Amino acid sequence: MCGIIAYIGSRRVTPVLLNGLRHLEYRGYDSAGIAVLDGEQLQLYREVGPVAGLDRAVPKDLGGNVGIAHTRWATHGGVTRANAHPHLDSTGRIAVVHNGIIENATELRARLEREGVEFRSETDTEVIPHLIRTFYDGRPLEALRDALRLVSGTYGVAVLFADHPDQFFVARNGSPLVIGLGEGETLVGSDPQAIVSFTRRVIFLNDGEVANITREGVVTSLLDGAIFAPAVEQLDEDWIVEDKGDFEHFMLKEIFEQSQSIHRCMRGRLVASEGNAKLGGLDLSPRDLLYYKRVEILACGTSYHAGLVGAMAIERLAHVPAAAHVASEFRYRNPVIGPDSLYFAVSQSGETADTLGAVSEVQVKGGEVFGIVNVVGSSIARTCGRGTYVHSGPELAVASTKAFTSQVSALLLFSLLMARTRHLSPHDGKAFLDALLRIPRQVESYLQDPGPLDEVASIVSRARYTLFLGRGFNYPVSLEGALKLKEVAYLPCEAYPAGEMKHGPIAMMEEGTPVVVIVQDDSVKDKTISNVRECQARGARIIAIHTQGDHEAAACGDISIAVPRTLEYLTPLLTVLPLQLLTYKAGVLLGRDIDRPRNLAKSVTVE
Ligand code: GLU
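A: This is the predicted complex of the input protein with glutamic acid.
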C-alpha cells in the first residue's frame, strides 16, 4: 500500500525514483508521481495507473539530483491525477508525498481555506504543504515540525523545498520509513525493497522522529527539536533484490518457493535429540512458558488464517487454550488482557496498521506481545521487541502464499515448544519433528504433479458461486482458499466449516455448483464425507482435496486432487497448495492482474 522513495546524491534522480517506484509496485497502488528539483525549480509529474505510464510522461532529459516520489493508494478522494502525490503549497515551492491518513484534515482544511488557501485536490495530504507554508520563514525543518505538531493521524512524509535544493526532509508517525546511507548519496524508502539495491546501511525511523537528509547523511531529531544519534543497522541478505526468474508471475514463483521458505523457517530451530523446537527470538525459558495459561493470536487476512491453524495446533498439541482474533475487531472491543496470556501478532509485512493497533492495545493494558513477522526491522517486530521472524524472503505478489505456510510453520514450532513444557513426550515430539522435516520434500513432490487443476480452474472461473469446505485444521485452509480466489480472480465464493454448511449455504447448491472440499484422512474425515454427500444430493460438483492413497475420500470427488500424507496438524501446509494454484490458474484464465489485483495492497498501513 502506498510507497515513498526519495533520493539526494550525484546520480540523475529521475531514473532512481522511477526505478524505486517500480520496486514498490508490488504493494498495490492506483497512481504515481514524482517531484524533482532541477536547479531551484520544482518539476512535478503525476499519472493515474501504473508507474510505466508515469515513466512515459516524464521527459527523458529531466535533470536534477534530488527528488521525492510516491505510489498512492487512495484513502481520501478519488483516483485522479489531481489527487496523486506529490502535493504542492500555493506557491509551488514546497512538495510533499505522504503515506497514511491525516485524521483532522477536514478541520485543518477549513481553517486554511478561511485563511484564503485554495486547495487543488480532495486529499487529506494537501493540508501538509499548505500548513508548512504558513510556518515557513526560510527555516524548512522548523516549519515542518510546526506543521506536523498540528496534524493528527498517521504519516510517513517526504518534503522537498525549492529554496533548499541540497536537502530534503522526512518524518514518521505510524507509516514506516527507512533511510539508506550510501557513499555520497542518501535515500529514503517506505520499504527497504526500494533502496536495497543502493545500500544495506539503514536507519529505521521511529514514530515522532524527523530527519534532515543530505547527500552526506542524516540528522535525526524529535518533533520537539531534540537531536539524537540514530541506530544504524545492516539489512540482512533476506533483502535480495528479487526478479521473477523463469516464472511468469511472482505469485507462481512464490508458490513454488514454499519448499525452501518452509525449510528456512525451520532451519536452526529444531532440537532433534529432545524432540523439541527452539525459538531464540522469543527469549522464553521453559519455566516462562509454563506460566502462560492462554495464547491469543492477533492478525488480519491470510495471517489470521495462519493464526487459526496455529491456535488449533497450540490447543491440541499443548493443551493450552488458544484463539485467533481479527485484529481490527480485537482492538476496538476493549479486550480483557489476561496477565497470564501470551499474545502473538502475526503479519507478513510487520506494518499492518490494524495489527499494530491491537499490539498497542495489549501493551497499554500490560500484556506481553510477541511478533511473528516476515519483514525484518518492521514496525510490529520493533514494537513487540521479541518474536520470531518467519524468513519467507521478500513476498512480492500482493496475494500472500509463502508467508502463510511460513507463519503456520512458525506457529507449529511454537506449539511443539509449548507442548514439550507440558505433557508431550520426547518420543512424540520427535515424531512431530520428523513429519515436519518431511514437509519441504512433500511440497516439492506435490508441486511437480499437482493434479487436474486446469480443469478445476475452468469450472470455478465459469461458476456463479463456489463454496470451500473444511473441518478442523482445514477449515482455516478453506477460508484461505476462498480469500485467495476473491483477491486474485475476483470470483464470488465463500468458505464454511463443512458441518456448518447445512445451516445456510446449502441453499446455494444447485446442479453443478462447484464445492471444493478438503477431506483429509484425519479425525474428522467421516464427518466431512457426510457433508460432501449432503452437497452431492443437491447437485453440487465436488472437488476433493484428499490424502494420497485414500481411495474412499478420492472417490467422493467428481474431481480428486491428492496431496501427500502427513500428520493431521501439518496438513494445512500441503492442502493449501492446490488452493493457491487453483486461484493462480483461474486468475490467468480470466486475464487478471495476478501480482497486483485491483484495490488491494500488500502492506495495509491504514486502518
Ligand atoms: N491519504 C492519502 C491520500 O488519499 C495518502 C494515501 C496513501 O497512503 O497512499 O492521498
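DSSP finds 19 helices and 27 strands in the chain. The longest strand covers residues 31-38.
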